[in-house]
């Protein structure tokens, strides 16, 4: 009986385990984690802190799901992998042999060697343990300084504010999440953050975390020379693969574990998926590491097929992602670069109240639709996915935009206003058509 | 918290305390007029009243400090009156003994007409003479196995006779039950009676004002959006002592309301002026309940609208349930009552409105002429045509979270407790058994009730049996027909429901056509009615349904007990355009949707598979969609083909995919 060991019980490892079990009812599956006994949704950590949910609520499967599907759970830290003898060495138990190994060990918050970065009170937000640390750091805290402008930074800020802890937010670039969000989009989010009393410091970097008499973080020193007193420092400047335990082995690694399109590493029967995987060449030409929930899930699905005998290449479809910045939901489909690309044009519509916006990107000459960002308005994945495959023009997208609307019933519609603005700017005469189920569901 | 909110909260808590304490503030005076007033209300005759008044004696004018002293005294008084009735008019043990002695003079039993006249003179004791003759006439000249046997028979009949006499001349138990309530209310004197207006303003107006002062300023709490911060830290929402106390209060409230209204007459008294101004009649406990229901829904409905002020679906929906509660459930029946018409909440559909086919309701409607006929017709069309049609187009939400009163209270007063519902697959299993068994119970009871009411005019029992059989078999046939194309119900469920349907039809046909039994469903319909009313009407929908809000979530009744929800749910699952659409691959399995689902649906389990949610229990409140941080869920009505199919792939992954049929 083949024994498949999976290191990491996050979305990638768990998806792999489930898909292996679906296709192969015989093999033995062991899911190993040092973090928690059971799979939970990492993206929901913030909601536990804010009191929206309990830890129990973040578990996507009930505890009886695992024995029922004969997925063995092992709570241990893998200290070393002996690839030659196909054996795992744990911190708390006898070694375990495997036939196939899936590395889904995720990532850890980046630390860039700032002085004081390891002081008590300084932390990232990635794991369940980080949440526990934050709970310990929170009582009595008056201000938190968050370093690094990305999604986790905003979540961190929102969490702090629910406990009446004031937030200063250091952003290295001249606007928030500048490598992902175009200027208008970023401006809207920054306005919204300020509306929530986030003290946003642009063009500002962390120089040093200063310790107090008690040995805990007392303040940060910024690149502008300012000292900001604080009790919590949140390090949210991205994540990097959590692969220190694999460094002294034959496994080929760079920043992450190097894999080919089949998610195979340089060692036979060893695969890497999720945050920790780095492609030699990304199948779609995108960045070699994409550390988001959805890609982790897709890699899990893919490797599950390969391991159970149907060798499958990782082929993520059109890029999509989502997030929530305080009260503004964000969805994106396709390619919307933070900095405008040569030969592309973009169009921005914003609601007068400033919390709803849509960004469309298209080819300058052919007007082929390339990507969309939506803020405060929900849109359908399935419809955009279809339009990308059909290579529709931006005019077509605008004309049929009501098909894509996914806002709850009775919400005010904005398609007409969006088209009006586009018509004015591009001298067109597009009128939005009423949504039709036939088109949305692709019924012939 | 702003100062104004603090003032509001303090005002509310103060007024609510006055409301609770007011129950102990009344004094109760035992007077002839109060007693007569109470007895008038229960329809006691002058003679019946006189017996009670005669027993007053030293108690006349006595003032009791609380209901707990007054009610036992009243009960004793009535018992004495009934004893007096018996002593005067009843057949005594001595008289029975005389009959036995005279009839068995020679050792054998020889009971004759003369002996009856001898013991009960036709001149001086005509009533008893007649009663004895009516009840024991069959014993005259009969042979008995012995004197003992004869005496036993007589004793039995004596009890029947005496019960009849109390029922006729004294106060029978069913009248005493209501007399306690009415006489207690009439006997109230002192603080409450003297300041009805003041107490009414404090308890019903100022308390709401306080609550609103606390709630409405939340409009300005930051930007509009989902604000569930601290929900799991709050005592009141997490079975802390405040939550448990509130639950206990609600449970106590329902127990007293249904079973011991005589102890909460002070609350009713305060509303007399309101009731009189609306319908011209004094308030009763149901009027009081209606007012409290409306106020709770109104205040908490405003809270709902403030909390979800960014969400137009929630605002419109909350407006709708408030409208139906105020207009249909409260005002319309009051108007009908003031016009001396049968009080009827037009939106309340069978089988939730389980008394709809009870003989006294049908009689009441039939007595009301055209309007009554129209009401019966409306009720039947509503559940037979309206429910399936609306549910096909909009899902069961059109009723459960847009119209229904129980749902209305759950969505307003109960909203803070939605996260307490159990999401486990085990709870789901219990739910499926429980709610469908209640539906079967309701159907059996209603068939029994209607059967014993019939025949009526041109509707014979034969016709009724045939109609019910055709409906049941036709529905099942339709289910099997649809099931051929899509898996709608699990195989076991399908066989269970078919078995239940076939058995119901079998029992009806057997009892009606073959053995010609009076109890068409084997059970006595009055007994069934009684059990259903107690178990389902009182315990389940009242005590558990509302009292358990803070303990097990706000939809306990709707989820586990409501037969109408079961019926709507079957249609929603079977044939409806409604679904909660999952937005492709955007789900991050965070669990907000499942956590805040009041019906305990594990919404995430579907969303993370990219599958639409088509569950019979979903009431369409829309909160899962509202709390989703990634815009994954949308309630909508669309083509019903394939709406519940599991997608082959989750959108976004072109590698594992279309050619590769994995069942998730």
Compile the SSE list and pairings.
The complex is a heterodimer of chains A (444) and B (664).
Chain A: E1 3-7, H1 11-23, E2 28-33, H2 45-49, H3 65-68, E3 71-75, E4 78-82, E5 87-90, E6 96-97, E7 100-103, E8 107-109, E9 122-123, H4 128-137, E10 143-147, H5 151-162, E11 166-170, H6 183-195, E12 198-201, E13 206-211, E14 217-222, E15 227-229, E16 232-235, E17 239-241, E18 257-259, E19 270-272, E20 277-279, H7 293-307, E21 320-325, E22 328-334, E23 344-350, E24 357-363, E25 369-375, H8 381-389, H9 394-399, H10 401-404, H11 415-426, H12 437-440
Parallel strand pairs in A: 1-2, 1-7, 2-3, 7-19, 9-16, 10-11, 10-16, 11-12, 18-20
Antiparallel strand pairs in A: 4-5, 5-6, 8-17, 13-14, 14-15, 21-22, 22-25, 23-24, 24-25
Chain B: H1 3-21, E1 27-29, H2 32-41, H3 46-54, E2 63-64, H4 67-89, H5 93-103, H6 113-119, H7 126-136, H8 147-169, H9 173-187, E3 188-189, H10 191-194, H11 196-215, H12 241-259, H13 265-270, H14 272-279, H15 285-307, H16 312-338, H17 359-367, H18 369-394, H19 397-400, H20 405-412, H21 425-453, H22 461-483, H23 491-514, H24 525-547, H25 549-552, H26 556-560, H27 563-574, E4 578-582, H28 592-595, H29 603-607, H30 623-627, E5 633-637
Helix pairs in contact in B: 1-11, 2-9, 3-4, 4-8, 4-9, 5-8, 7-8, 11-15, 12-24, 15-16, 15-20, 16-20, 17-18, 21-24, 21-27, 22-23
């Amino acid at each position: 009986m083949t024994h498949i060991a999976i290191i990491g019980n996050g979305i990638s490892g768990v998806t792999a385990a489930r898909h292996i079990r679906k296709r192969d009812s015989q093999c033995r599956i062991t899911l190993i984690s040092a973090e928690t006994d059971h799979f939970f949704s990492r993206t929901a950590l913030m909601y536990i802190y804010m009191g929206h949910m309990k830890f129990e609520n973040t578990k996507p499967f009930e505890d009886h799901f695992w024995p029922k599907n004969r997925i063995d759970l092992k709570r241990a830290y893998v200290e070393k992998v002996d690839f030659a003898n196909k054996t795992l060495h744990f911190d708390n138990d006898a070694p375990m042999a495997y036939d196939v190994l899936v590395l889904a060990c995720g990532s850890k918050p980046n630390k860039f060697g700032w002085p004081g970065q390891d002081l008590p009170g300084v932390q990232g937000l990635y794991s369940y343990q980080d949440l526990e640390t934050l709970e310990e750091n929170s009582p009595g805290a008056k201000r938190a300084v968050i370093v690094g402008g990305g999604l986790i930074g905003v979540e961190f800020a929102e969490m702090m504010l629910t406990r009446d802890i004031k937030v200063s937010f250091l952003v290295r670039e001249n606007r928030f999440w500048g490598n992902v969000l175009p200027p208008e989009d970023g401006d809207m989010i920054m306005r919204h953050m300020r509306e929530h009393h986030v003290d946003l410091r642009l063009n500002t970097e962390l120089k040093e975390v200063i310790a107090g008499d008690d040995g805990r973080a007392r303040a940060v020193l910024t690149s502008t020379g300012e000292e900001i007193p604080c009790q919590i420092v949140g390090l949210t400047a991205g994540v990097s693969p959590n692969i220190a335990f694999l460094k002294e082995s034959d496994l080929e690694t760079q920043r992450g574990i190097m894999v080919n399109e089949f998610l195979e590493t340089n060692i036979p029967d060893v695969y890497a998926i999720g945050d920790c995987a780095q492609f030699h060449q990304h199948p779609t030409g995108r960045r070699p590491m994409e550390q988001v929930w959805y890609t982790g899930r897709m890699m899990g699905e893919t490797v599950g097929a390969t391991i159970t005998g149907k060798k499958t290449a990782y082929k993520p479809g059109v890029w999509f992602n989502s997030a929530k910045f305080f009260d503004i939901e964000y969805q994106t489909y396709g390619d919307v670069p933070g900095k405008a690309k040569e030969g592309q044009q973009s169009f921005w519509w914003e609601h007068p109240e400033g919390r709803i916006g849509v960004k469309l990107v298209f080819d300058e000459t052919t007007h082929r639709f390339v990507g969309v960002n939506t803020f405060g308005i929900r849109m359908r994945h399935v419809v955009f996915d279809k339009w990308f495959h059909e290579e529709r023009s931006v005019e077509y997208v605008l004309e049929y935009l009501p098909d894509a609307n996914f806002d709850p019933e009775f919400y005010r519609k904005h398609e007409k206003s969006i088209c009006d603005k586009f018509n004015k700017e591009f001298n067109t005469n597009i009128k939005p058509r009423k949504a039709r189920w036939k088109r949305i569901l692709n019924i012939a | 918290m702003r100062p104004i909110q603090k003032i509001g909260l303090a005002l509310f808590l103060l007024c609510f305390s006055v409301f609770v304490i007011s129950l102990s503030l009344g004094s109760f005076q035992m007077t002839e007029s109060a007693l007569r007033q109470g007895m008038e209300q229960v329809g006691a005759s002058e003679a019946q009243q006189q017996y009670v008044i005669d027993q007053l004696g030293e108690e006349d004018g006595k003032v009791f400090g609380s209901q707990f002293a007054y009610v036992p005294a009243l009960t004793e008084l009535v018992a004495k009156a009934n004893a007096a009735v018996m002593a005067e008019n009843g057949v005594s043990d001595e008289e029975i003994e005389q009959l036995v002695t005279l009839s068995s003079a020679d050792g054998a039993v020889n009971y004759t007409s003369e002996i009856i006249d001898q013991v009960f003179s036709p001149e001086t004791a005509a009533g008893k003479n007649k009663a004895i003759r009516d009840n024991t006439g069959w014993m005259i000249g009969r042979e008995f196995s012995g004197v003992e046997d004869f005496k036993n028979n007589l004793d039995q009949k004596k009890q029947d006779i005496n019960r009849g006499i109390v029922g006729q001349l004294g106060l029978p138990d069913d009248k005493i039950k209501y007399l306690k309530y009415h006489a207690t209310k009439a006997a109230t004197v002192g603080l409450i009676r003297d300041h009805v207006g003041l107490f009414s303003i404090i308890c019903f107006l100022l308390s709401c004002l306080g609550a609103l002062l606390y709630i409405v300023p939340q409009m300005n709490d930051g930007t509009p959006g989902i604000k569930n911060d601290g929900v799991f830290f709050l005592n009141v929402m997490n079975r802390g002592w405040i939550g448990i106390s509130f639950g206990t209060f609600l449970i106590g409230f329902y127990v007293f309301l249904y079973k011991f209204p005589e102890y909460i007459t002070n609350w009713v008294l305060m509303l007399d002026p309101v009731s009189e101004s609306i319908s011209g009649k004094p308030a009763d406990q149901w009027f009081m309940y209606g007012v409290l229901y409306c106020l709770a829904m109104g205040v908490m409905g405003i809270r709902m609208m403030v909390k979800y002020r960014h969400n137009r679906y929630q605002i419109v929906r909350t407006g709708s349930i408030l409208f139906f509660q105020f207009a249909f459930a409260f005002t319309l029946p009051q108007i009908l009552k003031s016009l001396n018409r049968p009080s009827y909440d037009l939106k309340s559909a069978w089988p939730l409105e389980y008394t709809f086919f009870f003989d006294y309701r049908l009689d009441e409607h039939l007595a009301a002429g055209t309007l009554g006929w129209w009401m019966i017709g409306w009720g039947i069309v509503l559940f037979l045509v309206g429910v399936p049609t609306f549910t096909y187009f909009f899902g069961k939400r059109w009723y459960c979270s847009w119209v229904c009163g129980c749902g209305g209270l759950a969505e307003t007063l109960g909203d803070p407790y939605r996260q307490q519902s159990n999401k486990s697959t085990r709870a789901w299993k219990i739910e499926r058994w429980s709610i469908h068994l209640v539906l079967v119970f309701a159907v059996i009871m209603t068939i029994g009730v209607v059967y014993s009411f019939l025949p009526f005019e041109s509707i014979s029992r034969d016709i009724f049996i045939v109609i019910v059989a055709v409906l049941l078999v036709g529905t099942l046939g339709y289910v099997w027909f649809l099931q051929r194309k899509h898996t709608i119900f699990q195989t076991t469920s399908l066989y269970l429901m078919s078995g239940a349907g076939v058995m119901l039809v079998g029992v009806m046909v057997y009892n009606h056509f073959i053995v010609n039994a009076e109890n068409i469903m084997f059970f006595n319909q009055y007994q069934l009615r009684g059990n259903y009313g107690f178990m389902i009407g009182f315990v389940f929908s009242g005590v558990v349904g509302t009292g358990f809000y803070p303990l097990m979530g706000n939809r306990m009744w709707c989820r586990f007990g409501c037969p109408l929800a079961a019926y709507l749910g079957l249609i929603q699952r079977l044939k409806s355009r409604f679904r909660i659409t999952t937005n492709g691959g955007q789900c991050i399995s965070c669990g907000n949707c499942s956590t805040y689902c009041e019906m305990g649906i594990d919404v995430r389990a579907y969303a993370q598979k990219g599958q639409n949610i088509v569950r019979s229990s979903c009431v369409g409140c829309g909160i899962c969609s509202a709390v989703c941080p990634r815009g994954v869920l949308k309630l909508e009505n669309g083509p019903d083909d394939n709406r519940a199919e599991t997608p082959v792939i989750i959108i976004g992954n072109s590698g594992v995919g279309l050619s590769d049929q994995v069942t998730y």
